[in-house]
Amino acid sequence: EYYLAFHDKVISRYLTKILNFPNGSKTYTFKEPKIIKNSNKQFRKAYAKAVLMFEGGIGIKEDVQLGVKNEDFKNSIAEILNMHNINFKNKEDCDSNGIWRIWSGKLKKESAKEWLSFFEENTEKWYQIYEIINGYQGKIKSRKEAINILNSIYPKRSKKASLLEIFFIIKNLNKTHRYEIVKKLCKNNKLKSYGGKWAHSLMPYLNILKKAKIITVEKARFGPKKSFGTIIRDLYTYNSNIKEWKVPYRPWLEKEIDYLKN
Question: What does pTM read for this prediction?
Fold first, then answer.
């Protein structure tokens, strides 16, 4: 937990008397300050923007998520989103860990445009939504630079798989499909299984590589089914032409990455 200690009575009174911040832990007791709740739509939007910037997250599945241990806190953000006609899902009950959740579902271009204004411009979260709308904007000279950028933006968060592992599996195989990638992941990481029956857990990673034009995707036939018809799968092919790649652009990485100008 984090806390702030004030020795200035003016600041302390401003927070407790004007903004109605309760003393002690805020996790379970914090509410939208009345002065903000009773203000106009734009002030309330600015408040929600601050909450989403610090408490919200953009998942690798391209969705906005907010999870807090306070139902009133969650409901006030939901109310503001509704005021601005933002589409989202609002879980009515908390989960087994006592977390109350709001999430957007997988964002498409149009829904991403609606959410973009709820994040501070030129921040990491803003860029991740911006790229859903406009695609990746960065060009690089080498595979090493692409790897460094992808590793910075999408670091390994799971013991089972990472974007770079999947990148190298496809590169080494040149052409492959989901089940072969899963087989390699399981072998490399000593896993019994990964991704479910249809290997759907791979899709967010594959979509990133596809959006970066590091891989191409086409339908391919893989022989007859046991019952009837033909097995058709997505075939992923490594694109060795680095000039065609597009990677996430971040201004703060320019000291480390020699981005090419578009």
Answer: 0.86
